[in-house]
Specification:
Number of domains: 3
InterPro entries: Kinase-like_dom_sf, MAPK, Prot_kinase_dom, Protein_kinase_ATP_BS, Ser/Thr_kinase_AS
Number of helices: 13
Number of strands: 10
Shape: globular
Order of helices and strands: EEEHHEEEHHEEEEHHHHHHHHH
Strand order of the largest sheet: 1-2-3-5-4
Pfam family, one: Pkinase
Distance between the termini: 55 Å
Strand content: 5-15%
CATH class of the largest domain: Mainly Alpha
Structural class: alpha+beta
Organism: Acrasis kona
Largest sheet: 5 strands, antiparallel
GO molecular function, one term: protein serine/threonine kinase activity
CATH superfamily of the largest domain: Transferase(Phosphotransferase) domain 1
Bound molecules: adenosine-5'-diphosphate, magnesium ion
Protein name: non-specific serine/threonine protein kinase
CATH architecture of the largest domain: Orthogonal Bundle
Length: about 400
């Protein structure tokens, strides 16, 4: 640790506190996360999920772990430094982000997620605090809860931060998987538009209540597994009619609504995968060539240095191995300045055969018409039973407990 000059405290999360520091030799700015727990052996450190996952992931939209240091039984992770997290940049804003800014953030988050899922890991704690921003570049961080996609069910840890927790986790599905990350991304996307959390549940039952108040009560048709899970615990979903997302998020374009609607499907298998989400019309505005989804990412198998976690640095390949005509660079804000005409065609997702996670995704075929934003809509917003961001009690963003269900049993 003598090699670093610590400056300012930048974060205090669940498992560690994060300090900004400078490398004395190179003057490079880094973020050092000191774990709260003590570690008495190196082996214990190396086996940590965060280390195991991050040493295998090398992508421009995933935070880079540069070094792991154990000193006096304290464990430190040295990361590349980022200016802020997404929550910090949202909380002080009163003016909404431009749509191109949101599109750019979403694009990068989904790229990071698509890569991570393709590499066989799902994150399980996607939330604004874990998405880091440096100028226009966004990176997924905090892999403390990451799991292997191929891990055998049952998964009995019902984790993730409540407001971003997928319904199947709330309903204690024993085999939830990577679609939980897509749910969270949908919720985060809505929050980027409204600058308010969409489902700020004050408890697990309240979380389900808020979800149902927007999506409507789940049915046998749209989520048969959910009905089974509910029946298994003798739980009755609260009764609500659906409130269309366009009434709650009036500043989102129809393509954005279409993407959010599909990401926030009750049934995890009906949500698009991260790669499929990147193919949505939302990301095809002003693009003259298809977005490369089957990128040849650098192969961590060949780059990782097996028994040397303290030297994780690997080359970044920003070209992604392929050059389309239009290169949606990381950190480049999307075109265009004016919106092109909205597509009238029903959207059919293209199936990506390289996708690891099977999905029967059937995104909604209706692209809402641009004329939807009318006075009638404003009335609907006023009359909506649930307004995003409204919660009966204030809920702390940090330290939201996870654990055994608080679902009422009738
Ligand atoms: N590389 C980084 N650069 C800048 N800030 C960071 C970095 N890593 C973490 N932080 C800040 O510290 C907070 C907590 O870090 P995180 O890795 O999420 O730990 P925890 O597991 O404790 O939540 C983040 O929300 C973010 O604000
Ligand atoms: Mg965190």
């Amino acid at each position: 640790m003598k090699r670093y000059k610590l400056s300012k405290m930048i974060g205090d999360g669940t498992y560690g506190s994060v300090v900004r520091a400078t490398n004395n030799e190179t003057q490079e700015l880094v973020a050092i996360k000191k774990m709260k727990k003590k570690y008495f052996s190196w082996e214990e450190c190396v086996n940590l999920r965060e280390v195991q996952t991050l040493k295998k992931l090398n992508h421009p939209n995933i935070i880079k772990l540069k070094e792991v240091i154990r000193e006096n039984n304290e464990l430190y992770f040295v990361f590349e430094y980022m200016d802020a997290n997404l929550y910090q940049i949202m909380k002080d804003r009163d003016k909404p982000f431009s749509e191109s800014k949101i599109r750019n953030i979403m694009y990068q988050v989904l790229q990071g997620l698509a890569y991570q899922h393709k590499m066989g890991y799902f994150h399980r704690d996607m939330k604004p605090e874990n998405l880091l921003i440096n100028k226009d570049t966004v990176k997924v961080a905090d892999f403390g809860l990451a799991r292997e996609i191929r891990a055998r069910p049952p998964i009995t840890e019902y984790v993730s931060t409540r407001w971003y927790r997928a319904p199947e986790v709330l309903m204690r599905s024993p085999n939830y998987n990577s679609p939980v990350d897509l749910w969270a991304v949908g919720v985060i996307m809505a929050e980027l538009y409204t600058l308010r959390p969409l489902f700020p549940g004050t408890s697990e039952p309240d979380e389900i209540f808020k979800i149902c108040s927007v999506l409507g009560t789940p049915t046998q048709e749209n989520w048969s597994d959910g009905m089974r899970l509910a029946a298994g615990m003798n739980y009755k979903f609260p009764k609500f009619a659906q409130t269309p997302l366009e009434t709650l998020i009036p500043n989102a374009c129809p393509e954005a609504i279409q993407l959010m609607t599909d990401l926030m499907k009750y049934d995890p298998i009906k949500r698009p995968t991260a790669s499929q989400a990147l193919q949505y019309p939302y990301f095809q505005i002003g693009i003259s060539a298809p977005i490369p989804v089957n990128n040849k990412y650098p192969n961590p198998q060949t780059q990782r240095q097996e028994n040397n976690v303290s030297n994780i640095s690997v080359q970044q390949d920003n070209s992604m191995g392929r050059k389309p005509q239009f290169v949606p660079q990381y950190g480049v804000v999307y075109p265009p300045k004016s919106h092109p005409p909205y597509p009238n065609q029903p959207f059919q997702p293209r199936f990506n055969p390289e996708e690891q996670i099977p999905s029967n995704s059937k995104p909604s075929s209706k692209a809402p018409s641009p004329s939807a934003k009318t006075g009638r809509q404003n009335n609907l917003i006023k009359n909506a039973r649930y307004m995003p961001g409204q919660s009966t009690r204030t809920s702390p963003r940090k330290g939201i407990p996870t654990g055994p269900s608080g679902i009422p049993v009738k």
